[in-house]
Amino acid sequence: MAAGDIHVLHVDDDPSITDLAATMLERDSDIRVTTRNDPEAVLDRFEAAEFDCVVSDYEMPEMDGLELYERLSGQFDHADFPYILFTGRGSESIAADALNAGVTGYLQKGGPEQYDLLANRVHNATDQYRAQVKADRYETVIDALDYPVYVVDERGTFRFVNEPFAAMTGYDRAEILGQPTSFVKPEETVQRAEDVLGQLLSSSGPDTARFRATIETASGDLVDCRDHMGVLPYEGESFRGSVGILRVSDEVPPPATDGGRVSEPGRGGDHVPKDRLLDALSDPVFALDEDGEFVYANDRVGELVGRDPDAIPGTHYSEFAVPVGGSGDCDLFVDLSDADDVDRFAAEQSVLVDGETVTVEGRPATLQGPEAVFVGTVRDRSDRQRATDRYRALFDNLPDPTVVTDFDDGEPRIRRANGAFERVFGYDAEAVVGESVNDLLVPDGHADGAAEIDRAVLNGERVSREVRRETADGDQRDFLFRNVPIEHDDGEVLAYGVYTDITERTAYEERLTALHETARRLMTAESTDEVLDIGLRAARDILGHDINAIHLYDEATGGLVPVATTECTDELFGEVPTFTEGDSIAWRAFERGEAVVREDVREDADVLNPETPVRSEMVLPLGDRGILLPASTEPGAFDDADRSLGNVLAANIQSALQQVEREQTLRDREQALARQNERLDEFASIVSHDLRTPLDLAAVHLELATEGEGDADREHLDRVAAAHDRMSDLVSDVLAWAREGVTVEDTEPVSIPDLVTDCWMGIQAESASLSVTTDRTVEADRDRLRRVFENLLGNAVAHGGDGPTIRVGDLDDAAGIFLEDDGPGIPEDERDDVFTSGYTHSEGGNGFGLAIVEQIVEAHGWEIRVTDGAAGGARFEITGFEE
Question: Where are the transmembrane segments (predicted)?
Fold first, then answer.
């Protein structure tokens, strides 16, 4: 492909986008980009022939991308030209509308990988379109392979000639292609062809036309022909050129009559002027008298029979020609004197000349006077045979399976099949002659469609449609089937059927459909696990390989941890590895954010395990979240289509993970607000109830103090002070409880023994003792964890009896610690209530201490429970620490 061979028109109202797209696309040397920022201007100046592909934004001020496509299609009747929507607004409905309208592709804007994907889409769309155009033109000219055929483009330049045409002109095909028609046509013929073409192009003109034409050969000879001209199929409203089929004229003009006379029978040719006998023709030309003796023979006749042409006159034709398959005189030549209307008489017969079969064609003619002669020309049968051989060679070497069929009581039966038919369908080309095409190729469930095709062909209709057919070994494949019927004069119908294998294209379209459905399901997923499950199944089904894994980045390990794997992956690896920085192909792709395809991973120096059973793999980044990793035990298992589809799937998984994360954040916030509202409700209850008692007590004692005297007054004031202390403690605990959030933001490594010892120093407990046996360090909010231990230690001192012993140590069977005392413990039927705010059995207690403890523990992602201690007291166990 030449540099800049694909010309792309990019339409977007944002100049920065078109400039960026042009820069990114033109990194591919095959692509050159023209940009437009006004879709209305595109409609005014658009010429379909200028561009190979159109890329358009969807949302633009004047009109959207779909409206632009529809208007271009309607204005130029060019609905099948490559058109790709490249939009920043992703929508399932827009994608569906685009595909239903006939748009070639739909792609969302994004990072560099999306522009790489766009370049691939442009290549694929352009290649498919060009292949279809080429096939359409090829089909136009293949119907007349027995005759000279040419194709001329809209500028009057030869774009195709077949071998018979080249042979007729005496030039090589390469010499003719690219030349104007005047290269082999006199000016008069060129002008006549232009006039006829103008009639064909007029709205009221015919579809085809015949006219006389003259071809000037390389040697300067002029060949009189009939030109049967038609117009190539349009592309939009653009005229693409014409096709012509030439037939050398069957009419031989009468000899010139300038006063000369043909010699008398048997007298030789000295007296016959050669210019009277059309000796300018390049074919062998002769004249016989009514007795069958030559009166004239041109040089080509002499070459044919191996005689000096001047010695041939006076010789009977039977010395040179005998009937094919027999002996005696040829019955071609009749008694000319008995021909009532010699101008209408003509004859043709095959004869042997010097052992070679030739065809003699001729007609009676008269010169001045009553003499009659038979003027004939010789056409070498080998010319026709060569044309037939060329046709058969072309037929046999067509790249697509091709058959010629006739019809037996409506059933198509094979007359001839080419080599491609044999290779693709697996049947011997000679063995299938006479067999029913439908019995051989049509699978179950497709008989009605095949019968519909047969009826159309018998009605003289051309057929072009997608079909499914079955090979000899039972495989079913998809084909673009094109059938051209040819009806002979006797009413017999032959049909040329061509099967172009589109199985891969159909499979790709099915994979695209599955990808669209996957994108829809991913966008409705409600959890990370659901996204991973959908993505993993899609990778297996769409990319067609059972080995697949999704790795997400984990900050704690600093690596890509496998979070979702297929059953085949687990069976193959046992334990799927975690990829860490700098030691694998996977990490390199993740770090660079670029997809990597390895045809053989063992040839890559960064392969994690050189003995891996995996031979080829794709590493598809999921942004900064991780990678999708499809793989195969076979080398070279992934092609460009796999990479393109894989990139789109990975982008959809990444978007779905982001969406789930956003929605989870919203749910967490909603839950936090709900819990905060609950705490506010409880706070209001506490303020209205628990604070009322000490306030009432304080009010009563103040009233008594104002009425009494002496020590009694002092006692009342002490009670007021105690009530105030109780209210202060209550307010402090309520505020602490209300302020504790549901998550922990800032953490640091905290030594539990150091923190517990520090908290113990602030507890008023002269008769109590503390034993710490753990050396554990945890990641936590130091201040909030301090409150946990202060509350638990204070609770143990307050409820553990006289001189309690308090122990803090590691759990034996879990990642956690315990804090226990040897006091009376907590009854089993009350253990579910101890963490409820307001729960207390202590006089003067407010019931918030353990509620705060549970809240802080859960905010760290841990769990707490209460059970019996080793000495029968209360034991609190905190679990869920990371090891």
Answer: none
Element holding 396 (H helix, E strand):
helix 381-397
Q: What is the pLDDT of residue 855?
A: 86
Q: How many beta carbons lie within 10 A of that of residue 850, not counting itself?
A: 23
Phi, psi of 629 (to 5 degrees): -130, 90
Per-residue pLDDT of 692-711, as tens digits, reads 556 666 666 666 666 666 66
Q: Which domains does the chain have, with CATH numbers?
A: 6-139 (3.40.50.2300), 143-248 (3.30.450.20), 274-385 (3.30.450.20), 402-501 (3.30.450.20), 507-664 (3.30.450.40), 740-879 (3.30.565.10)
pLDDT at 342: 40
193 near 211, Cβ under 8 Å? yes
Query: Quick one: pLDDT at residue 358?
Result: 64
Distance CA 793, CA 240 (A): 93
From the list 778, 825, 818, the residue with the least C-alpha distance to 800 is 825
More confident residue, 523 or 740: 523
Average of per-residue pLDDT values in the chain = 78
Q: Do the strands 626-632 and 547-554 form a parallel or antiparallel pair, or are they unpaired? A: antiparallel
Residue 209: other Cβ atoms inside 10 A: 18
Element (H, E) at 755: helix 752-760
pLDDT tens for 540-551 read: 888 888 899 999
Instruction: Count CB neighbours of 2 within 10 A.
Output: 7
Q: Kindly give the residue spans of alpha helices, DSSP state H, lying in 219-331.
A: 299-305
Map tokens 């749910």 to a residue. Answer: 667
Which regions of 591-653 does DSSP assign to beta strands (E)? 596-598, 616-621, 626-632
Model pLDDT, residue 515: 87
How many angstroms separate the CA atoms of 596 and 584, rounded? 12
Q: DSSP label at 825?
A: -
> How do residues 587-646 score in pLDDT, each as one tens digit?
888 888 888 888 887 777 666 677 778 888 889 999 889 999 998 988 888 888 888 888
Tokens of 371: 């003499």
Instruction: Say what the pLDDT of residue 145 is.
Output: 41
Report whether pLDDT(237) > 70: no
Asked whether the beta carbons of 26 and 52 are under 8 A apart, the reply is no
Which tokens in the block code for residue 729?
A: 């403690």
Question: Which amino acid, residue 121?
Answer: R
Beta bridge partners of 349: 360
> Token pair of 551, please?
């790795």
- In the chain, the largest separation of any two C-alpha atoms, in whole Å, equals 179
Give the total residue count for the chain: 883
Partners of 470 in the β-ladder: 476
Residue whose token pair is 């007359």: 415
Q: Which two tokens stand for residue 575?
A: 């334990």
**Residues 37, 62 contacting (CB under 8 angstroms):** no
Which residues lie below 8 Å from residue 607, measured CB to CB, with a gap of 6+?
A: 584, 585, 601
The pLDDT tens digits for 84-117 are 998 887 677 777 788 778 888 888 888 888 888 8
Model confidence at 180, in pLDDT bands (50, 70, 90)?
very high
Output 752-756 pairs: Cβ under 8 A, ≥24 positions apart: 752/776, 752/777, 752/778, 752/808, 752/817, 753/808, 755/782, 755/785, 755/786, 755/789, 756/789, 756/793, 756/808
For the CA atoms of 164, 167, 168, 172, the dihedral, rounded to the nearest 10 degrees, stands at: 110
Task: Give 636-688 pLDDT, tens digit per residue.
Answer: 888 888 888 888 899 999 998 998 888 888 887 888 777 777 766 666 565 55
Q: Find tokens 């006797």 and name the residue.
A: 490
Distances (CA, A) of 550 to 96, 563, 610, 825: 29, 6, 21, 49
Cβ within 8 Å of residue 782, ≥6 positions away: 748, 750, 755
Q: What is the helix (H) or strand (E) element at residue 287, kind and residue range?
A: strand 285-288
Q: What average pLDDT score do residues 838-854 get?
A: 68
H or E element in which residue 748 lies: strand 748-751
Q: How many whole angstroms separate alpha carbon 338 and alpha carbon 331? A: 15
